[in-house]
Amino acid sequence: MKFFPQRTTKFNRDKKNAGIHAFRKSNLKLVESFVREFLQNAVDAIFEEEKPVRIKMRLVEVTNSKDKQYLKEIYKDCLDLLKLSGTKPIYNSKYLVIEEFNTKGLTGTSAFEPKPGEYEDAHWSNYSFGMFRESKTGDAAGRNGVGKIMNNLLSGIRCVIYKTHRSELDPSEINDEVWIGGRMEYEECPEQPEDDDGKITRYENWSWLTSSIPDGYDWNNDDHITEVYKPTNDSETLKRFDQIFDIERDDNEYGTTWIIPSPLQEDTVKKTGEKVRTEMTDLEEIINHAITEYAWAFFSDQLEIDFDGKKIDQGNIKEELIERYPDRSEFWEFLDDVIHFDDNKLIPIDKSWQDERQITDDLFTETN
Fold first, then answer.
1. Phi, psi angle pair for 340, to nearest 5°
2. How many whole angstroms separate alpha carbon 305 and alpha carbon 286?
3. For a surface tag, which of 25, 26, 138, 247 has the fewest beta carbons within 10 Å of its beta carbon?
4. What element of type H or E holds 36?
């Protein structure tokens, strides 16, 4: 199992990675944007709406030498291509592990290109292969798919691995309940000298985590390429990732586990305004953005998150916000009042009031 890049030619129209460059031009903040995109996608994918989406976030340091070697083998070849594409890897043994519960998982077809009419429900394919696919409908946040790059950008090696427990099975798939996949994104298509004659080998601006590379792989064989892009579902690989990252999930707990190697945080140099990315040392910045950007989701019991042992949910969100942002205490109290307001005290609106120049207490009395 390893990250595998497809070859391309010098006539590749998309040499630069459009997702990375779109984010860079936006001047958005790294961790803040990651939190917005990740939590929005999790809430949108809720499975049982009468229950909250539950998330566990942990910073994990892999210390076992065999585990470290196993992971190193997965992406070691592509780290050289990452350097050739213009990115200096920040690589260590730390991982941000995020487990979603009560979400649908990445359902739908495993095909690189879904059939017409399948795109809206092709969550696995859209996330894995469709950087700018408009897979969401209506006013749903993230419709154009740009946010799919955020998990990669949070990684010091531009990499994300995901293991998904799918709530809906596809009749056309085999052994499709639990899948694992991953993407590494390059700044642009890397070019690698192949021999003394100066022959150049060019690769796509991303690589895919696969365990399905056919013997005698032919770069121009569509069947071989299709085989490479299959998700991994063998039990030994799934168990190995569970063991390394201490992943536990019951059979009826649907959702996705996200593994982000060498997670980063972003600081701004005061004198120059330059943005500097360094190793993530704790979850504090993620916590601050999560509870403010998604305060209503916590208050309304749509979301609860365990931040490495610090659990925040409907029961303590108000106190947490007041402690961290006391200058907005009135607003946090207001949100809490809205949630706990007694519906029996609601005032019915009478259409005839629109003809009144002044609303009096007597009118309120008449409605009771």
1. -100, 10
2. 11
3. 138
4. helix 30-44
Give SS3 for 297. helix
Tokens of residue 270, six digits: 């005061």
Pairwise CA distance, residues 103 & 57, whole Å = 15
Each residue of 111-140: pLDDT tens digit?
A: 888 888 888 888 999 999 987 666 555 554
Structure tokens at 192: 């690698």
**What is the spatial distance between Cα 139 and Cα 141, in angstroms, rounded to a whole number?**
6
Residue 81 structure tokens = 């291509």
Residue ranges of E strands in the chain: 2-8, 53-61, 94-101, 159-165, 178-185, 191-193, 200-210, 255-261, 264-268, 275-279, 303-307, 310-312
∠ at Cα 167 (166, 173), nearest 5°?
Answer: 55
Give the pLDDT band of residue 97 (cuts 50, 70, 90).
very high
Please give the Cα distance from 89 to 13 (Å, whole number). Answer: 25
Distance CA 168, CA 322 (A): 40
Structure tokens at 197: 């004659």
Reported as a single tens digit per residue, the pLDDT across 218-272 is 878 888 888 889 999 999 999 999 999 999 999 889 999 999 999 999 887 777 7
Rounded Cα distance between 248 and 89, Å, is: 30
Token digits for 125?
A: 């394919």
**189/324 Cα distance (integer angstroms):** 44
SS3 state at 351: helix
Q: Are 211 and 1 in contact (CB under 8 A)?
A: yes
Block residue for tokens 């950007």 = 293
- Hey, what amino acid is at 141? A
Per-residue pLDDT band for 146 (boundaries 50, 70, 90) equals: low
